[in-house]
Specification:
heterodimer, A: about 80 residues, mainly alpha, about 80% helix, about 0% strand, B: about 90 residues, 2 helices
């Protein structure tokens, strides 16, 4: 197919691949952190502890990922 | 389009079809993202708001669902900002 050699299409595909990866990450973390941080029924506004829990949750997940990679590297 | 045709230099018509294809791809990707998100929100809000299913949705359940959807969207924003903007 001619379209597969189209550089614009290749660019779109690469761009969408990155977007899909970011989307997946955000969706996964939102789901996990929602379960951890939003324990009661959702209110009309997040409490400050809920929103800081969400922020911390995402950032600690990233810290943990780095740690796990390092742990595996140290095993080799 | 047949894959054995000679790789002729891109004619105006094949340029057009590649563009149409890309537009369609974008629409379909957006639809897929939206559907996946919707499915997640359904699951989360069902867990939170419909704890004991009755013969119809109660007023309390309906308002819980509205708040749950709003908060889940907000939570998605908070998570993506904390991942991509606050990297120090």
């Amino acid at each position: 197919m001619d379209a597969l050699n189209n550089p614009q299409l290749q660019q779109l595909i690469n761009q969408e691949k990155e977007r899909a990866m970011a989307n997946e990450m955000i969706a996964k973390l939102t789901s996990a952190c929602w379960d951890k941080c939003i324990t009661g029924t959702p209110g009309s506004k997040f409490s400050s502890s809920e929103s800081s829990c969400l922020t911390n949750c995402a950032q600690r997940y990233m810290d943990m990922s780095v740690m796990i990679v390092k742990r595996f590297q140290s095993m080799q | 389009m047949d894959s054995f045709s000679s790789p002729s230099s891109s004619s105006p018509s094949s340029q057009m079809s590649a563009e149409d294809f890309m537009d369609q791809l974008k629409v379909q990707l957006a639809q897929a993202y939206a559907e996946e998100f919707l499915e997640t929100v359904r699951g989360k809000c069902f867990d939170k708001c419909i704890t004991k299913p009755g013969s119809s949705l109660s007023g309390g359940e309906s308002s819980c669902i509205s708040r749950c959807v709003d908060r889940y969207i907000e939570a998605t924003g908070i998570i993506s900002r904390s991942l991509f903007n606050a990297q120090r």
